[in-house]
Design a protein that fits this description.
Layout (H helix, E strand, L loop, with lengths): L14 E6 L3 E8 L8 E8 L2 H8 L7 H10 L5 E6 L5 E8 L4 H15 L7 E10 L13 H9 L2 E10 H13 L3 E7 H14 L5 E3 L10 H16 L1
Parallel strand pairs: 1-4, 3-9, 4-8
Antiparallel strand pairs: 1-2, 2-3, 5-7, 6-7
Helix pairs in contact: 6-7
C-alpha cells in the first residue's frame, strides 16, 4: 500500500512547514517544549519570483536553491520538513465500496478505480487513501426490472466512502531530492486544506493559546489562511 502523504517524522525535534505560492514561500517552525502548550511557532516569509515558483513546481526542474536560501535566512534549525502539495500536482477522488471488504480487498478495489480515472499510469503515481465515513445507502431506481428481493438486498448493502489522493511520482521524487540538497528531510506531503484543518484543531484545543512569533510582521504577505497551512504542516512533523 502506498503511503506517500504520511511518513514517520523525528519526534521531539523542530518541525518545519513549507507552502509555495505564486508570490513566495511561507515557512513555519514549531519547536516542541515540555508539553504541547509550551510549543512555540516561528514564521518566515521568503519572496520569490514567478520563474522560481515555476521551477519549484515543475516535476523535472524542482530547484532546491530557493529552499536552501530561505532556510539559511530564516535561521531555522529544523531538519524534518513537511510540504504542501500544489493544487496543480494533486488529484483527489471519492469512491464508494462495500464496507465488508477487508483491507487487502479495499486496497485492490481502490487501485483498480484509481487506474481508471488517473490522467497518467498508476505506476507513475504515488497515492494514499483513507476511509472517511459510511456513505448513504445506494438508491435503486424502481421499477428496475429486477426481483423485489434483489432490489432490497442492493439497498441494504453497507457502503463506505473512501477519499483518495495522488500526485505524479516524478514530482514527489523531485521534492525529496530538492529537500535533500537543501539539507532537509521531507517527511510529509499533504494538501493545504488538510494542514490547515490540523492547525485549526490544534489552536482550538490550546486553552492558553498558541505562542506565535512574528505573525504581525508578515501579515501583509502571509494571510491567516496561509499561516494556518504553514503552521499545520510544521505541526504535522512534530506530532506524526
Amino acid at each position: 500500500m502506498n503511503r506517500p502523504f504520511r511518513r514517520v517524522a523525528r519526534s521531539q525535534s523542530p518541525g518545519l512547514g513549507v507552502c509555495l505560492t505564486e508570490h513566495g514561500m511561507a515557512m513555519a517552525q514549531i519547536t516542541p517544549g515540555a508539553g504541547p502548550v509550551n510549543a512555540r511557532t516561528h514564521w518566515y516569509w521568503y519572496p520569490q519570483s514567478e520563474s522560481q515558483h515555476s521551477a519549484a513546481s515543475s516535476p523535472s526542474r524542482f530547484d532546491p536553491e530557493p529552499l536552501r536560501q530561505a532556510r539559511q535566512r530564516s535561521g531555522f534549525q529544523a531538519r524534518s520538513l513537511a510540504m504542501a502539495i500544489p493544487q496543480s500536482q494533486l488529484q483527489s477522488y471519492q469512491f464508494q465500496f462495500d464496507s465488508r471488504l477487508n483491507l487487502r480487498q479495499l486496497q485492490t478495489q481502490v487501485r483498480e478505480q484509481l487506474q481508471a480515472v488517473l490522467p497518467w499510469p498508476l505506476a507513475d503515481a504515488v497515492w494514499d487513501f483513507q476511509v472517511t465515513a459510511a456513505a448513504a445507502e445506494p438508491a435503486v431506481a424502481k421499477p428496475s426490472g429486477r426481483p423485489a428481493w434483489l432490489d432490497q438486498a442492493l439497498q441494504a448493502q453497507p457502503v463506505q466512502q473512501v477519499d483518495v489522493l495522488a500526485v505524479p511520482r516524478a514530482w514527489a521524487q523531485s521534492c525529496e531530492d530538492a529537500c535533500r540538497q537543501a539539507g532537509l528531510q521531507l517527511v510529509r506531503l499533504e494538501p493545504a486544506w488538510q494542514a490547515s484543518q490540523r492547525w485549526q484543531a490544534y489552536t482550538q484545543q490550546q486553552r492558553n493559546g498558541v505562542l506565535q512569533e512574528n505573525t504581525a510582521m508578515y501579515g501583509q504577505v502571509m494571510s491567516e489562511d496561509l499561516q494556518a497551512v504553514a503552521g499545520g504542516l510544521a505541526l504535522g512533523v512534530v506530532t506524526a
